[in-house]
């Protein structure tokens, strides 16, 4: 028989592709021997991919050696179509014989696929011969997208290493630009398996494959597909032996796959924990890889047994504590987050952290004098201190022994807004500690800084600042010191003056906090006098009409102390000061001017009309003493 021309060969290939599609469609309607037909369909899919690649070859790229193979494939397809027809019509002579025929057919298709693969390996499909399919535009239909992905998959299956790598690059670019490509990849389970298989391939192919898997990991609903395809083990192998790019992408994939401690045991079973610990303890790797490894370990410590294993490993805690001092922000942040996860609910592990100098390292992050130092690192360090130190005496003692209050006060005063809020939260926690700590904070200068936050835009910030300040001035020494600064009391009173346009937006919650602070201050004579003489009493009385019992108590306390002081003077000097009815009348009027409107009304209802103003003063003294 003469040699086929290129056009005849292409016609045979197209005929085989069409026959495979028709046979696959027919096989889905077969109700018997379902397992056998599933196996045959899988072999037909592989053969289809290989033949589809041949249809994309330029005519000059056809090799004569393909002719006999294509002819054999067409013969097998004809025989298989006959078997499928008999299964559909149930016209076969016996089940055992049909099962045997189907096994022979599956083996035949497998042999054809392997023969085709050997021809590709010989170099028939190269970049010079392949016709490149253009990537569909943004408005392309789903079928066009699917065709493009299938073409890329074909190149990955049958191309040489460089073609595989380039096809993966194109796939990654497409998935990054349009999520539809990710969905198409997941729908074709063969492509997922192909990507997983490439993790054990040559470095360039491996790197691009793990990047593709990372794109897919970003979709939570697709992570299960990857895990079922057996991706964990190959990712761990890349982590152990891959290139720097491959390792980084592999660690990021594992971090996605282990969120909420999912698949933790699978990672551990493949040796992932040891590989991750080795990366963290070795200074040769990039900060990105170390940070991602810390992120994976943070997810894994949610499993108690894995956490115990990590802690019992030599120098594990020492390694993580050292990473806190890294010069790279992402390493600092992830290592602190890891330690926080390890120690948050474990007093024993917190004690190990203290012994290894972990608290000092956290404070050192706050004390970094570099103005460009990461605010994110400071925030996470403050969060760790907030969560770890206040529930452990050992941690708290270690914290207070390394000048933490000085650094905290500096951040409260000079930090970026996000850092200031974190520092304020820790300050609020400190203010709930015993009186000795509050006394130290008062001496250190925390109270004036807290006053600055009383007019913050955020209600939560105002609340934290108010509660912290209230706790500090509950200490008599602090209260006295606070009252010595006229600005402190004047500023609080000004915030309560709702007639001031600047404070028109003040809300009821903030007002309640400020009134509580003033109530505490009235226990100090100097503070009480400053409040009484400030000129804001009318504003406070007005608040008493709308803000409820707290404001009324404040008005009552201020009035009681002022009148008792005033009346005691009159009673001591008696008639030496008031020598006539006219002067006695003036004294009564003066006293009544200071009475709150509610008290004055009550007094007026009970007053006994007498002409003797001396008796009137006496009755007023008795009334004020009893009612204020």
TrEMBL record:
U-box domain segment(s): 240-496
Signal peptide limits: none
Keyword Lipoprotein: no
Start and end residues of each DUF7032 domain: 15-124
SUPFAM superfamilies, sorted: ARM repeat
Pfam families: ARM_PUB, DUF7032
Keywords of the record: Repeat
Repeat is among the record's keywords: yes
PANTHER family linked: ARM REPEAT SUPERFAMILY PROTEIN (PTHR46043:SF5)
The protein, known as: Armadillo repeat-containing domain-containing protein
Native source organism of the sequence: Brassica campestris (Field mustard)
Lineage, opening ranks: Eukaryota, Viridiplantae, Streptophyta, Embryophyta, Tracheophyta
């Amino acid at each position: 028989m003469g040699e086929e021309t290129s056009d005849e060969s292409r016609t045979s290939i197209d005929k085989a592709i069409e026959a495979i599609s028709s046979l696959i469609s027919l096989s889905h309607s077969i109700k018997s021997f379902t397992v056998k037909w599933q196996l045959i369909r899988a072999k037909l899919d592989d053969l289809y991919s290989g033949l589809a690649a041949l249809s994309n070859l330029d005519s000059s790229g056809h090799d004569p050696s393909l002719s006999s193979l294509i002819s054999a494939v067409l013969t097998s397809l004809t025989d298989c179509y006959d078997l499928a027809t008999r299964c559909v019509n149930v016209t076969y002579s016996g089940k055992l014989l049909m099962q045997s025929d189907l096994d022979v057919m599956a083996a035949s298709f497998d042999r054809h696929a392997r023969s085709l693969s050997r021809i590709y390996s010989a170099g028939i499909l190269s970049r010079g011969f392949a016709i490149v399919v253009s990537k569909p535009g943004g408005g392309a239909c789903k079928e066009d997208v699917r065709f493009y992905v299938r073409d890329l998959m074909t190149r990955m299956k049958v191309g040489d290493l460089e073609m595989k790598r380039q096809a993966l690059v194109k796939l990654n670019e497409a998935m990054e630009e349009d999520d539809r490509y990710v969905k198409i990849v997941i729908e074709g389970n063969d492509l997922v398996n192909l990507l997983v298989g490439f993790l054990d391939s040559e470095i360039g192919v491996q790197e691009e494959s793990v990047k593709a898997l990372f794109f897919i990991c970003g979709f939570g609903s697709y992570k299960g597909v990857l895990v079922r395809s057996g991706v964990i083990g190959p990712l761990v192998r890349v982590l152990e032996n891959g290139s720097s790019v491959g390792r980084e992408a592999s660690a990021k994939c594992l971090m996605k796959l282990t969120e909420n401690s999912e698949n933790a045991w699978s990672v551990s079973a493949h040796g992932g924990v040891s590989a991750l610990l080795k990366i963290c303890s070795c200074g040769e790797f990039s900060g990105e890889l170390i940070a991602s490894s810390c992120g994976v370990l943070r997810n894994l410590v949610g499993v108690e047994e894995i956490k115990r294993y990590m802690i019992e490993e030599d120098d594990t805690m020492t390694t993580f504590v050292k990473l806190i001092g890294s010069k790279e922000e992402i390493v600092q942040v992830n290592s602190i987050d890891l330690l926080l996860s390890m120690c948050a609910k474990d007093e024993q592990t917190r004690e190990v952290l203290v012994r290894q100098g972990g608290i000092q390292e956290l404070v050192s992050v706050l004390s970094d004098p570099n103005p460009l130092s990461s605010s994110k690192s400071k925030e996470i360090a403050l969060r760790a201190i907030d969560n770890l130190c206040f529930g452990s005496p050992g941690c708290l003692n270690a914290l207070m022994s390394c000048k933490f209050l000085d650094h905290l006060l500096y951040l409260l005063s000079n930090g970026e807004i996000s850092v200031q809020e974190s520092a304020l939260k820790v300050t609020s926690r400190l203010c709930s500690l015993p009186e000795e700590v509050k006394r130290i904070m008062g001496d250190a200068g925390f109270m004036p800084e807290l006053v600055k936050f009383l007019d913050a835009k955020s209600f939560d910030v105002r609340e934290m600042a108010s509660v912290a300040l209230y706790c500090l001035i509950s200490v008599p020494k602090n209260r006295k010191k606070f009252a010595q600064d006229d600005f402190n009391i004047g500023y609080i009173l000004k915030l309560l003056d709702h007639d001031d346009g600047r404070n028109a937006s003040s809300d009821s919650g903030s007002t309640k906090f400020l009134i509580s602070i003033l109530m505490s201050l009235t226990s100090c004579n100097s503070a009480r006098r400053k409040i009484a003489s400030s000129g804001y009493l009318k504003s406070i009385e007005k608040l008493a009409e709308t803000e409820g019992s707290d404001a009324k108590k404040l008005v009552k306390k201020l009035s009681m102390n002022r009148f008792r002081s005033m009346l005691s003077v009159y009673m001591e000097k008696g008639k030496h000061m008031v020598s006539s009815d006219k002067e006695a009348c003036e004294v009564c009027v003066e006293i009544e001017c200071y009475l709150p409107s509610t008290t004055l009304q009550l007094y007026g209802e009970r007053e006994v009309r007498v002409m003797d103003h001396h008796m009137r003063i006496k009755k007023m003294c008795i009334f004020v003493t009893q009612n204020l």
